[in-house]
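Let us practice reading a record.
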Amino acid sequence: MDRPQFWSDKKVFVTGATGLLGSWLTAELIRYRISTVALVRDYVPDSHFFLSGNQTRAILVHGSVEDYPVVERALNEYEIDTVFHLGAQTIVQTANRSPLSTFEANIKGTWTVLEACRRSPLVRRVVVASSDKAYGSQGSLPYREDMPLRGEHPYDVSKSCADLLAQSYFKTYGLPLAISRCGNIYGGGDLNFNRLVPGLIKSLLQKEPPLIRSDGTPTRDYFYVKDALSACLLLGEKLDGEDVRGQAFNFSNERPLSVMELVRTIGDLMEVHLDPVILKTSSGEIQNQSLSNQKAREVLGWEAEYSLEKGLAETIAWYRAYFQRGMTRDT
């Protein structure tokens, strides 16, 4: 499929445009010269979205994802036919501290977008970003798409609910959508330094021992943002297919690592080895998670293009440049 040709006549609305995946997706759409409308809640000057200059190339709609009149106006006024719903509160510890704001953004925000899409006669495809956290704790791994969604802690519950809402809008109203369930997405542009990958890189760049909230044993899939981007676009491109519409798909590199294994891998790539400080303060998080890509391989023909090492190397380079710019501005 010729990707630029497919998207050339589309009008796209992106929620969560200033987030990690949203900023990369918006940049890619703009690179294809596609009419792109970005929903922006906060102005974060150092975010990837604003550093890239894409705020001058996209149409900006200011507001929150749970504000129905804002979303409805954007879909109608800009004649949107494709929606990527990526907007969410994505930090587990933030959700544990403030569950209500997380439920507002992740659950109410999802039904707001879905309802606005349902009521729009122009929307032809909707991609909803769920998460591996939607599965909760399961008796066996890796997660498969036919497993039940049973989050227990606030963030996990919010993603289970958002995922089920999307399924209900397809089954009840026939809304043309597909759901992505990704592992832990990392990559340049993530300024949430309480997340593991950017936090580790920042500490090692500053020659400081990294702080580990857990005991170092939890395992996760660490999924490079460029692979997440390709998966997201491919879902949009395949949504006319009966075997895709209404379906959920897992995306990962199928290489789960423990926290300590990730610490060692990043240390090796950066050639900086400092013993981490193990805090053991994390709570309300799933111990082990991993995803099977079998359905995405068989139905979509999708495979991750980036190895863990290649994705991390590009990410480390991004943060080196980011902090170097910061030092240059201060001098």
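A brief commentary: The mean pLDDT is 94.
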